[in-house]
């Protein structure tokens, strides 16, 4: 007996991620990465195809193979879809931002999401092994960039642009003024 898909309400957005046979694997990787740090994170229903799916004669899925996986990361619903036999590339135009409270969270999410072939990009961005783009960002960065001292914000932005994975210590050092006092 398979679990029923939760009913979406009229005001709910659900992100659908497209995969080439790895929908369940990807959903489980993401849930594993988030579950220790974010509440309301889980794999929901795994839906299997009721028919052989063969658009234009090419078999995409055989009956019984995973079609979609419902999963939730920190309360945000997603659907992973096995939608093609050929990879459809993700681009930098869409990414998921993970706000982190401290360096331990940054290190955890960075390692978990880059595992198994992910790639560091720049400025807190990485691409996971499926090509999905992530931004692993310390909350303090947003606060430093929005601070009243525009010189400090400029130093922080300059430091940020030189980083791959963010270092909170490096960002805080950049926020210090020329005399070593931290900016308020």
Automatic annotation (TrEMBL):
What PANTHER family does this protein's entry cite?
PHNB-LIKE DOMAIN-CONTAINING PROTEIN, PROTEIN YJDN-RELATED
Q: Which SUPFAM superfamilies match?
A: Glyoxalase/Bleomycin resistance protein/Dihydroxybiphenyl dioxygenase
Recorded hits in CDD domains, A to Z, give: PhnB_like
Q: Which keywords does this Swiss-Prot/TrEMBL entry list?
A: Methyltransferase, Transferase, Ubiquinone
Say yes or no: keyword Methyltransferase present. Answer: yes
Q: Which domain of life is it from?
A: Bacteria
Cite the PhnB-like domain residue spans from the record.
12-137
Q: Which GO terms describe its molecular function?
A: methyltransferase activity
Q: What is this protein called?
A: Putative 3-demethylubiquinone-9 3-methyltransferase (Glyoxalase superfamily)
What are the GO BP annotations of this UniProt entry? methylation
Q: Where are the transmembrane segments?
A: none
Question: Do the record's keywords include Ribosomal protein?
Answer: no
């Amino acid at each position: 007996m398979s679990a029923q898909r939760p009913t979406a309400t009229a005001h709910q957005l659900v992100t659908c991620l497209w995969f080439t046979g790895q929908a369940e694997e990807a959903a489980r990787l993401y849930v594993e990465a988030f579950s220790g740090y974010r509440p309301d994170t889980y794999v929901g229903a795994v839906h299997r195809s009721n028919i052989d799916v063969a658009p234009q004669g090419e078999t995409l899925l055989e009956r019984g193979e995973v079609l979609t996986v419902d999963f939730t990361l920190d309360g945000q619903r997603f659907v992973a879809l096995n939608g093609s036999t050929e990879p459809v590339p993700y681009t930098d135009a869409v990414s998921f931002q993970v706000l982190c409270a401290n360096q331990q969270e940054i290190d955890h999410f960075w390692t978990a999401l880059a595992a198994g072939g992910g790639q560091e990009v720049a400025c807190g961005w990485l691409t996971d092994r499926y090509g999905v783009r992530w931004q692993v960002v310390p909350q303090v960065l947003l606060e430093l960039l929005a601070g009243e001292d525009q010189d400090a914000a400029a130093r922080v932005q300059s430091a940020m642009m030189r980083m791959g994975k963010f270092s909170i210590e490096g960002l805080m050092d950049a926020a210090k003024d020329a005399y070593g006092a931290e900016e308020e």
